[in-house]
Design goal:
Among the domains are: 2-67, no CATH class; 284-480, no CATH class; 541-637, no CATH class; 651-749, Cytochrome Bc1 Complex, Chain D, domain 2; 771-977, Beta-galactosidase, Chain A, domain 5 (Distorted Sandwich). Strands 16-17-18-19-26-23-22-21 form an eight-stranded antiparallel sheet, with no helix packed on it. The chain starts with a helix and ends with a strand. The protein has 37 helices and 26 strands.
Amino acid sequence: MSYWRTRIERKTTVATRALLPKMLATGKSAHRTFVSRSMLSKLGCCYRLVIVAIVFSSVLRCAEAQTNPLTLTQQLQQEPPEQLVVEARESGNIVRGAILFHQGNINCAKCHQSASEKDRLAPILGKLGKDVADASLVESILDPSKSISKGFETLNVLTAGGRVISGLVVSQDDNMVVLRDTQNIDKLYRVPQANIEQTIPGRVSVMPSGLADQLSGRQQFLDLLRYVIDVKERGSAKATTQVQAAPVRELTSEMKGLVLIQARNCAACHESSLMESLPVAHQGPNLKWSAQRLSPQYLARFISDPHQTKPGTNMPSLMGQIDQAGRTEAAEAIVHFLLSISGARVPEEAAEVDHDSIESGRSLFHSVGCVACHSPRDEDAVEQPRSDSVRMDSVPMGELRTKYSSQALVAFLEDPHSARPSGRMPNMQLTHREASVLASYLLQNDEMLTAVMGKPWAVDAKLANKGQQLFAKLNCAECHAGIVDSNSASDRFVKLSDVHNSKGCLSNEPGNWPDFGLSEVETKNIRAALSNGIGVLDSQQTIDFTLASLRCTACHSRDNLGGVSEERHEHFQTTNLNLGEQGRIPPPLTGVGAKLNPKWMRDVLVNGRSIRPYMKTRMPKYGEKNIEHLVELFQAADQLSETKFATAHDLNESRKTGLNLVGDQGLNCAACHTYQYKLSDTMPAVDLTEMAQRLKKDWFYQYMLAPQKFSPNTVMPSYWPGGVALRSDIAGDPEDQVESIWQYLLEGRQARAPAGVIKEPLEIVVADEARVLRRQYPEIGKRGIGVGYPGGVNLAYDAQQMRLATIWKGEFVDPAAAWYGQGSGDVRPMGPAIQLAKGPELIDATKPIITDNRRPSTHQFKGYFLDKQRRPTMRYAFGSIDVEDYFREFKDDTTGQIQLRRRVSLTSPEELAQLRFRLAQSGRVEKETGDGYRIGKGLTIKVVSGQTPKIADGDLLYLPLKLVPQQTQEIVIEYLWE
């Protein structure tokens, strides 16, 4: 063949030969084009035969590609990089490319942003220089490991203990190797040289392979490439704003002590002008609420020995000088007193165990924000062992199952401020259903719940009278209001400023004083606050104090104080990965007073208003009197530098320009931002029509001109980097354009819809052949394969979990969200969809059933091939079992309707007996007359290949399977709509 190739090269031009790869890659039309009369006329007979042979082999390759379709990366790798560069410069949309560059699902900016030298994971594109050819950018995107830039190679370290640690080298000397985690730039691995067995240079780039496969198609790749080329050409000075990481800040020991002094309510006994000057005084729990709902037995144990009953509680032990029997007797008397004044107890009933509710509650607990303050828990709601830092920084919950009935815990979760008015437990704005499933998860034990309610307590008047006297004697009223009149304990104790820092409560010794169970660190911090004498707090200190007291810093950072800890990072989740970190991590509070208008800020702080529905962690409510002072403090403390505003001489013309800029023919803000609660195709970023109501004009100006300066991890691109507009074809300097956008936004909900918001729906029509569309589908993700069959039956197959995910009747799909957007929207089924259970259908019956979104490690998808009517047969492997999964339409003789039939073929080289194939798992499965099984409403499933299905737990329909070596077993299933 090399001989003939040489002869062909002599007989054809370079331009003709350059077209060959592209033509062969584009299908039959390319073959016809290549073997044209004009070209054949240049070649002799022998050469023509060679050309025909080449074309024939390419046809075979195309047929093969129908069986295993090429990914976008593979398709692009077949094209000359130089040609892609030419097309990017000619037809690439630089604005859409900028959006893609910052978009969360590929998030190029995360690694290529201009951070400090030590923190970067990838080269700054603006510093690449002219020596780096544009074609090499194409190769780096499509095959990042082909050539790794110097200084960004990874190192694999094998420790003496057998652990493998990989990362970028930060430093390396004779004593220590320091590596930076490539997934979290803040995480460093310090490995002593003495503990290293071997080091091996990494050959795989930090940049992920297959990045182009996250795009919707070739045009998006050209858009992205166009923007990357532009950033390189502009240079680092103009490309992005330099963002330097500031050091992490902590409260001083004195401020930490002050927070503890308030949490322990020391000022209830020790008068303090400083504590009185603070915006909010601490208030103990509402004991009438507790007496009506909590287990009396638990209350008695807690009052007798609070630190044993609930380690870490703020409640001090007040009876340390009394023996155990005496404490028990006194505590029971106080409980009798509380029950006597609190009115009738709330009726209680044991709750039934609902496994679905428990699982829903577990998911909610670990996503809605509970684990920002409380330690994560396992499936049995048992607190998980964690590092010392997590344990010390977690708010204890104690043994809930001996404290609450289900009804009581639901009531507390729905309205925690009725029980704890100081707002330390915020209102998470849970629905009744959410509060119920959380309670089911945290309690989940019928026997324990019955024991909690136990024998009803009959109030003993004599004991209640004794309890009242003890309540007053122990000064309980100083913290718990509304029970008895306070005796003004502060008149009988020294002032807080005169407290001896090694006696009484701070002595850590038992005596005739409250025992708070303070740790050494806590004692040290309180002593520092008392000894160093903190004066009246300024506005910044008061903000820090409030944020720490209410634990706002568990979610938010302000001037590098606080923020989500590394150990809790995984529990902050989003419904839209395109938003990146910005979509799941609560926003920083740095400069928030300069950003938000006071009215809006108050609505957020007091009412828990949220504009980020994609963020699963919620903004809770802390109670108006506990937090409203922050509005004035933020507004006074945060100021911006002077802003230069442009002047809008003609408001109507300016708004019109703003409308055009926001639309898809301008800067395409509508591609990402919601408009009047109508979600964009790409991501549900904050609503355009609320911006002028939320934001101050000077902040908006400065942010638009340099978004990375205000939010280094933002997915918002800079449209005027270095003061130069990305779109040189749009008139006006940056300030004029920003002013036009602002004037448009001032119209709020009266503003006209920008171009690109309202789109006509699309439809992929199915005629005589099946239609296949590989895209993201609801409840599946990006490895969905939709198939529309003649006759109006359709399905979506999950190639990640090897399962039938969705079926529906009617029209096929509307791909508008995926095609119009940035490749991230869901393809929408155009009929009433029936969602089937998650997790692989074929499993080992001895293993737990997977019902989440994880990719099963035991299964491997192997593509699909098409029949003559283009119906796909899915192929996958489960261990040693090869599976072929084929669907087709058929006419039901009984009803005359077109229905769906499925044939699953399984072949194994060995005998396997403990197998199970799931047919359905829903709320209810019912056996019908004959051989059908009713699944929910409107669907019947039949197995017509002779096997007998079984029902488990009322909701699982499955086939037990036994495979014989080298014999194919078939399962034929019919899905019948009413």
